[in-house]
Design brief:
4-stranded parallel sheet; about 35% helix; 14 helices
């Protein structure tokens, strides 16, 4: 199954099928470059494409990584031969046990903890690295709530780039270790993620930031496209079908908006049938500005100045893609919901107990929202449903620190029998 929209780009084209940058607000277009804001209205920029011929067979013959989708990404066609962390092609688990417990007959978990640094961020950073090379940057940087910092450190090391990443100082210890072990500079800032992000925006305009590629600022249009690969993989792993319901964590909101973009591209190319799907956004109640706006029926996201949730990877008080998340949830007939810290912990344990998947707190959020909606009868129990786990629970051990031995005994059969 295929479609032809134009002549395929050459293998040396640095951005493959990418044609230009388009403003998501006013539609103004501009040439490809290290830009993230529209010069006409200051709206966010994203990549538009002139795709070549793309077939299911071509994709299926590709490597077991996101590079099987190179014809749909802003990367050179020979990207799979270059030194990268080769993320992607993570497992889609048929969740019989979890589905049975929640009353959902056709449930799957997209488990992205299997990526090189154990979160979905490896996908987006792998794309950003290619853009950094194309623009001549020598240092890879970011503001991060933890997972992105580790992904940038690993990808930069693999690609032969320097790295310098910035994090809030109160992150989980495990994520700080993961971010620092790759040998780059790790700067902890006494402030919220939004304050860290503002600092990085200032650094871009300073001579200190010359030749620096900030993956989620001046490289953001390229970086964000990596999340589309989740959509591509889910559809392919489902037998080239779209799910009918999908639960996605919301931090900046970019992952959710790009998964929707990926689904729409597959439809446009004729690679999947155009079937309806509901997109459900999930947040922690201690930082739920998008969920609150959805419930209030408004389009304006009111920033959360001091996030207070154990799901620190989702603790972005002023999410850049928040308004677009609202648009997609409403357009698809989905919703945006939030869960408390206790529901997040329960979600982590529920997924571990039923499917043997140890999720980080963001996964506890998606599973918690899935359970909350299922219990309230707000999901179709027979619909093809996917819930995303975006990272590994070993990064957020404090959230389940109450777990431990069920008993401590002497080394004897009688002592063991007493515990039964």
């Amino acid at each position: 199954m295929s479609a032809t929209l134009s002549t395929a780009p050459s293998t040396t084209a640095p951005f493959g099928p990418a044609a230009h940058l388009s403003c998501r607000e006013c539609g103004h277009t501009t040439e490809l470059g290290p830009k993230f804001a529209c010069e006409e209205c200051f709206g966010p920029l994203e990549i538009s494409y002139d795709f070549g011929t793309v077939t299911r067979e071509q994709i299926e013959a590709g490597p077991a990584s996101i590079w099987r989708y190179a014809p749909l990404l802003p990367v050179p066609a020979d990207v799979a031969t270059r030194p990268t962390t080769n993320p992607g092609w993570t497992r889609l688990v048929r969740a019989h046990n979890l589905g049975r417990e929640l009353g959902l007959t056709n449930l799957h978990v997209k488990d992205d903890s299997g990526n090189p640094t154990h979160s979905f961020k490896d996908r987006v950073v792998a794309i950003a690295v290619q853009a950094a090379h194309a623009f001549g940057y020598t240092t890879l940087s970011c503001s991060s709530t933890g997972n992105l910092a580790g992904a940038v450190g690993a990808a930069a090391a693999r690609a032969g780039l320097d790295s310098c990443v910035f994090i809030p100082s109160d992150l989980e210890k495990e994520k700080i270790v993961v971010a620092s072990v790759y040998g780059g500079r790790l700067i902890a800032i006494d402030g919220t993620y939004d304050e860290v992000n503002r600092f990085c925006s200032e650094l871009i305009g300073d001579e200190l930031g010359e030749k620096w590629g900030f993956v989620n600022v001046n490289l953001r249009p390229y970086y964000a496209e990596g999340s589309k690969t989740l959509a591509y993989e889910i559809a392919e792993q489902l037998g080239w079908r779209l799910p009918e319901q999908i639960v996605i964590p919301v931090a900046s909101g970019s992952q959710l908006t790009k998964i929707d973009k990926g689904f729409r591209e597959l439809v446009k190319l004729g690679l999947v049938e155009d079937t309806p799907y509901k997109v459900i956004g999930a947040q922690g109640s201690g930082c739920a500005p998008v969920s609150q706006a959805y419930k209030d029926g408004i389009d304006v996201i009111r920033p959360v100045r001091q996030p207070d949730t154990i799901a620190k990877s989702l603790a972005i008080g002023n999410p850049a893609d928040g308004p677009y998340v609202l648009d997609i949830a409403r357009r698809t007939g989905g919703t945006v919901e939030d869960v408390t810290d206790e529901e997040i912990r329960a979600g982590v344990k529920l997924l571990a107990r039923t499917e043997g998947i140890f999720a980080e707190t963001a996964g506890g959020v998606t599973v918690g929202v899935l359970k909350k909606l299922a219990d309230a009868g707000r999901l179709d129990p027979d619909a093809l449903t996917v819930v995303i786990n975006s990272g590994d629970g070993l990064k957020t051990l404090d959230a389940v620190s109450d777990c431990g031995p069920t008993a401590v005994i002497k080394p004897s059969l009688d002592a063991f029998r007493a515990t039964l």
